[in-house]
Each structure stands twice: as structure tokens, then as C-alpha cells.
Design brief:
The protein is α+β, with helices and mostly antiparallel strands. 28% of the residues lie in helices and 22% in strands. It has one domain (18-287): Creatine Amidinohydrolase (Alpha-Beta Complex), CATH 3.90.230. Bound molecules: 2-amino-4-trifluoromethylsulfanyl-butyric acid (MF3) and cobalt (II) ion (2 copies).
């Protein structure tokens, strides 16, 4: 393709002249490319109109997780919760993204205690007193995706489990604070992993955060462990991705169950996770879920 001249129409489709639209932005990216950053294709960036749609999908996803908070108690099955998630999503004009995603059979993931993620809701899985439960929902609204998860503590949880849940939440918050335009994406994992280690915990390496918006899983890949030697990917305004560190009490190693989905800790100790979808802005970031 011929190099765009300043008076050509911008590549983004705005209809404006390139010099009045993304020209400065592209010059800025070239500067970082020369410094050794990896610059992902501009096709993964989102316009203000698209971000508004992701914001709306994220708001519905947030309401679903609030609804779960009111319904999750000792004695309910994870299938019951999944039914509530599906009905609530459809009642509000959304589609549960997990349902039939690469063959996933349910509308959300529910991962209890030693289950790291992708737990399949089941009529045989009953929520018990003392459980720490992750409910991970992704909602499609008007074609755009929002993805978020929270931990729910059932009844009286042991101090050790409560600490894991709290540290995992702080890991997400620490990751979020690293997000800024023209920052290193790897700063996220570089900040999260030492904090988890200081608390005696480990960070899962087999599963990562991801770009999201027009599709469920896209570039960039967001690792939650430290990779300090790499300059890596540049964060750019309009990038939308999740941060979703999985924090383990013991080993970071995971086992993948034969059902093709469920991930558990290698030593059957506890695991906790919180997730948000965010957009990189001109000044920092905005949580969209
Ligand atoms: N919501 C999960 C994530 O955070 C993905 C679940 S995929 C499913 O990326 F198929 F298991 F639902
Ligand atoms: Co998720
Ligand atoms: Co996700």
C-alpha cells in the first residue's frame, strides 16, 4: 500500500484528511516503534462510538454480577445461577457470550475454591458455606462485548481464603493502575506478580487477559506475571482489553480437566480471580465493566 499523504483521507474511515485525523497519532507510534516497542495493528483500536457500545455491554455485564450477588447463597446450584444469568441477560437485550463459545455449554463460568477458571455450571455443584466462588460473565450487547468477573464469599470463609480473595482484588487494582497511553503493557504483570509473591501467593501463567470489543478474545495478550526484560507491546489510546489475574495459594501450575474446560490448581489449593474490561484513554484508562 502507498504511504498516506497528509491530504489523503484518513485510514480510519472518519472522512477527515489524514493530517487532521490520525497523522499525529501515527507519527507518535513511529517514535515508539524506533525505541523498540511492539506496535499492534491499528485495526484493534476502538473509536469513541464503539467504546460507547462496549461501555453499554459492560454496564449490563456489571448489572448481571450485581444480580448474582443477590442470588448466590449456600445451597444454590451453579446451574441455577447460570439460568439466572442467561434469563437476566436476554431480558435486558443481551446475549451471554460464553453460551456455545467454542462449545462451552453454559452462559457463564463458575469456579469454586481450587477451580482456577472456566468452571462449568452444573446441577450437581452446590455452593457451600465457606466457599470462595468466581462468577465470570461476558455479555454481548448490540454486537459488542464486555467481560468481567468477581469473587463471592459464601457464609463464613476462612481467614486464609479471605486473604487470597482480597489480594487477588488488589492484584487487579495494581494492574489497572499501570495502564496509561504509551506505557508498556508488560508493566501490568511486572507490578502484579511481585505483590502476589510478597503475600505468599503465585500468579497463573497458562491463562491471560485479552483484547476484547468486536470479538471475545483478540490481541493484545495481557500476561499477569513479570517479564521485565521485554520492552513488549505499547499501550495506545483506544485499545480495549481485560486484566484478570488468577492468584493461587500454592503453585501457579494448573491442571486442565478432561471435560475440555475446567482448570484447577496443580496442588488443589485455592485460587481467586477478579476481572475488568478497560479502555486506554488519552490520559489513563476507563473501566468499562
Ligand atoms: N470470560 C472468560 C475470560 O475471561 C472466558 C470464558 S470462555 C468460556 O476470558 F467459554 F469458558 F466461557
Ligand atoms: Co471473563
Ligand atoms: Co476475559
Amino acid at each position: 500500500m502507498r504511504k498516506l499523504e497528509p491530504n489523503d483521507p484518513c485510514w480510519c474511515g472518519s472522512g477527515k484528511k489524514y493530517k487532521k485525523c490520525h497523522w499525529l497519532h501515527d507519527c507518535e507510534l513511529d517514535k515508539y516503534r524506533r525505541e523498540g516497542f511492539k506496535i499492534l495493528p491499528s485495526a484493534i483500536l476502538y473509536s469513541a462510538e464503539e467504546i460507547e457500545k462496549i461501555r453499554k455491554a459492560g454496564a449490563l455485564n456489571h448489572a448481571i454480577l450485581d444480580m448474582v450477588q443477590n442470588e448466590i447463597t449456600e445451597g444454590v446450584t451453579t446451574e441455577h445461577l447460570d439460568n439466572l444469568v442467561r434469563e437476566f441477560t436476554y431480558d435486558h437485550g443481551g446475549i451471554p457470550a460464553c453460551l456455545n463459545y467454542e462449545g462451552f455449554p453454559k452462559s457463564c463460568c463458575i469456579s469454586i475454591n481450587e477451580v482456577v477458571c472456566h468452571g462449568i455450571p452444573s446441577p450437581n455443584t452446590v455452593v457451600k458455606n465457606g466457599d470462595i466462588v468466581n462468577v465470570d460473565c461476558t455479555t454481548i450487547l448490540d454486537g459488542y462485548y464486555g467481560d468481567s468477573s468477581r469473587m463471592y464469599c459464601i457464609g463464613e470463609v476462612s481467614p486464609a481464603a479471605q486473604k487470597l480473595v482480597d489480594v487477588a482484588k488488589e492484584c487487579l487494582e495494581i494492574g489497572l493502575r499501570q495502564v496509561k497511553p504509551y506505557g508498556r503493557l508488560n508493566d501490568i504483570g511486572d507490578a502484579i506478580e511481585p505483590f502476589a509473591k510478597e503475600n505468599g501467593f503465585s500468579i497463573v501463567r497458562d491463562l491471560c487477559g485479552h483484547g476484547i470489543g468486536r470479538t471475545f478474545h483478540d490481541e493484545p495478550e495481557v500476561v499477569h506475571y513479570a517479564q521485565t526484560r521485554q520492552r513488549g507491546v505499547l499501550m495506545v489510546p483506544g485499545m480495549v482489553f481485560t486484566i484478570e489475574p488468577m492468584v493461587n495459594e500454592g503453585t501457579w501450575k494448573c491442571k486442565f480437566l478432561r471435560d475440555g474446560w475446567t482448570v484447577i490448581t496443580g496442588d488443589k489449593k485455592l485460587s481467586a480471580q477478579w476481572e475488568h474490561t478497560l479502555v486506554v484513554t488519552e490520559t489513563g484508562y476507563e473501566i468499562l465493566t
